[in-house]
Design brief:
The protein has 22 helices and 14 strands. It starts with a helix and ends with a helix. The chain is α/β, with parallel strands linked by helices and 630 residues long. A hairpin with a 3-residue loop joins strand 1 (28-37) and strand 2.
Length: 630
């Protein structure tokens, strides 16, 4: 239907001239631009209005534009504002291209909300409206904008659309009728236009009210100092305050003291002046009575805390007196400045000098404070208090906290046969002689797997030739053959342990039926793993590994042979097992009626005592049988 209507454009004729008479003879020329918007499109149209000497008015079509509304579906006021921006851009284009002198440019809009935005002088808008209003007022003035009713706005045809057959009968090419009158004023309301419901308009920012605060304090008080947590920040703040006050009191024409707002790093002289101001403020506030007496050349009151210091007043500071007046020393060394120890400024000073000596002890900090020319009354007590609260000092020299021991697992408390609940781990390695060659010998590594009973604390050690899953399984089978079946195995998440568990199908989630699985299911054996990175949960076997290592190290130290073989290592580890299992489980009693010693070996074999040596051997036996070497 729309395509068929385009055939009607053949009958449409647009005059090429702006007016029927020559434009060089007109008395006044005006450019009138109309804008309108709807939910479908935005549009603008411009007309050239001329007035000749006889008072006759002519209106000619200049330019018209229309754009589709954005897909984001803005509100109608936003669309009307976009149409106004389009009208301004069209006017700028016409003024640049037309070869005529335009006496006035007028804009017409049927939205009082947009006219209120353009004429606003008191409110602030959000970004969307602000940017477009700024664009409009960049090229136009508010008094150029006028209100036109919707029925008299020719741009309404562009925003709502019209069939091509009816275009010639509209005011799109001829302009509205009021332009032909001498006094074209269709507006129902004269400028300036007010905002429409500014309290309910979501495009207007809420009004922020600021109040000026006037303070009656003329000096720096303790409350002012307590707002700062470091001496450097307090020093910079007071330096900045002095700079601002000085720039306001001096001659405004002086460029050297004028505050430009960009403050460079403060000089040492400015920081020293700020330090003097802070110290004088503290002294005059805390030692007001002493300051008055010293200023009048009188002694301080006898009940004053400064009596023993023999204070003197020099250059506005209360300093420590003494008998070193003629000494060739610096004034800060002879007469330090007195400060009260219970003031917040002194706390900041102690923290500052304590950080300068890199958090050393009270002696270092007190010496640095005294070297800087300060005498803090009750300084030792204050320094101890600051060091006691210093977090870094606690990290450096604080007592290590101890973890509270958790409850023992149920396996440690059950009454069960030996090696029913077992914990295991691997330790090593040791270099052993694998085979002898003509040029020497080849070495390989051996590891040891330690099994410990959860209830009797006995151990059992098996030697491993490698750390793979196969050797781990062989060690488990040897252990089961010698010590009997176990109900539960517990270890960390070692790779070989996890692989052996998967191979033997000891996990709770392993359901594949094999001969080993059926055997272990009948025995009721499972394998539990501690959480990763939780070595503290394996203290039962870690402690036994430590004891076994120390025993084996002692045996190897006493051994004369410099090379180990597989058989020798197995023998040593068997003796380590016997020695560790012969240790007392409870303190040895001093009661002669209780000579019995409870050991893991006693619970395993019902025998008391360690195995006796096989005989006496000398150095000559090193060259005989291997068992004699061991």
């Amino acid at each position: 239907m729309w395509r068929d209507s385009l055939q009607e454009l053949k009958e449409l004729h647009i005059p090429r001239t702006y007016a029927m008479k020559s434009l060089t003879k007109v008395w006044q020329t005006e450019l009138c631009v109309f804008s309108d918007a709807s939910t479908r499109a935005i549009g603008a149209v411009a007309y050239l209005r001329t007035l000749d000497e006889n008072g006759q008015t002519a209106v000619g079509f200049v330019l018209g534009k229309a754009k589709l509304a954005p897909l984001s579906e803005p509100t109608i006021p936003r669309l009307e504002l976009c149409a106004a921006v389009l009208a301004v851009e069209m006017a700028e284009l016409i003024l640049d291209e037309i070869d005529l002198k335009i006496d006035a440019v007028k804009f017409y809009c049927d939205s009082k909300v947009v006219l209120g935005y353009i004429n606003n002088e008191s409110k602030r808008f959000y970004v969307y409206v602000h940017n477009r209003v700024e664009r409009i007022r960049q090229s136009t003035k508010p008094d150029q904008w006028h209100y036109v009713p919707t029925e008299h706005n020719p741009a309404d045809h562009a925003s709502w659309g019209i069939p091509a057959s009816q275009l010639a009968s509209t005011s799109w090419f001829t302009g509205p009728p009021f332009l032909f009158k001498l006094n074209q004023s269709p507006s129902e309301k004269s400028n300036p236009f007010e905002l429409v419901d500014p309290e309910l308009d979501v495009e207007i920012r809420p009004q922020v009210t600021s109040f000026a605060t006037q303070t009656k304090m003329t000096t720096l008080t303790r409350k002012c100092f307590q707002r700062f947590s470091t001496w450097n920040s307090l020093l910079r703040a007071v330096t900045f305050l002095i700079h601002v006050v000085r720039s306001r009191k001096m001659d405004p024409a002086s460029q050297s003291t004028k505050c430009s707002g960009q403050h460079k790093p403060y000089t040492p002289d400015e920081l020293a002046q700020a330090k003097d101001v802070i110290i004088k403020s503290v002294q005059r506030k805390f030692y007001s009575g002493e300051f008055t007496n010293l200023d009048q050349k009188k002694d301080v009151p006898k009940n004053s805390s400064l009596t023993k210091l023999n204070p003197v007043l020099e250059e506005g500071f209360i300093r420590v007196g003494g008998h070193l007046k003629h000494a060739q020393l610096d004034r800060d060394e002879k007469n330090p400045i007195i400060l009260p120890g219970n003031h917040h400024v002194c706390t900041l000073l102690v923290r500052h000098y304590h950080e300068q000596v890199k958090h050393q002890g009270r002696h270092f900090t007190e010496g640095t404070i005294r070297a800087s020319g300060l005498w803090i009354v009750g300084g030792k007590r204050l320094i101890n208090s600051v060091l006691h609260k210093c977090v870094i000092c606690k990290k450096l020299r604080g007592k290590l906290e101890e973890q509270k021991m958790a409850d023992l697992p149920p396996e440690r408390l059950n009454t069960s046969p030996p090696f029913t609940y077992v914990g295991l781990d691997v330790f090593g390695p040791w270099a052993v002689i694998a085979r002898r060659t003509r040029g020497g010998h080849a070495e390989s590594k051996r590891w040891a797997m330690l099994f410990t009973c959860m209830s009797t604390r006995a151990i059992h050690i098996e030697v491993l030739e490698s750390m793979d899953t196969s050797c781990c399984i062989n060690a488990l089978r040897s252990f089961f053959a010698l010590r009997g079946p176990a109900k539960q195995l517990r270890s960390d998440c070692g790779t070989n342990f996890v692989g052996a568990c998967n191979e033997l199908k000891l996990g709770k989630e392993q359901q594949q039926e094999t001969r080993m699985q059926r055997y272990l299911s009948e025995q009721g054996c499972t394998w539990e793993f501690n959480p990763p990175h939780s070595s503290h949960m394996g203290g039962v076997w870690e402690r036994m590994i430590g004891v076994a290592r120390r025993v084996l190290d002692s045996i190897l130290l006493q051994s004369k042979s410099s090379h180990l073989s597989h058989e020798v290592l197995c023998t040593f580890l068997a003796e380590v097992t016997a020695i560790v299992n012969a240790r007392p489980l409870i303190p040895v009693s001093n009661n002669p009626e209780l000579p019995f010693i409870l050991t893991p070996a006693t619970l395993l074999t019902q025998k008391v005592g360690a195995p006796a040596p096989l005989g006496e051997f000398t150095d000559k036996d090193l060259f005989k049988s291997q068992w004699r070497q061991v």
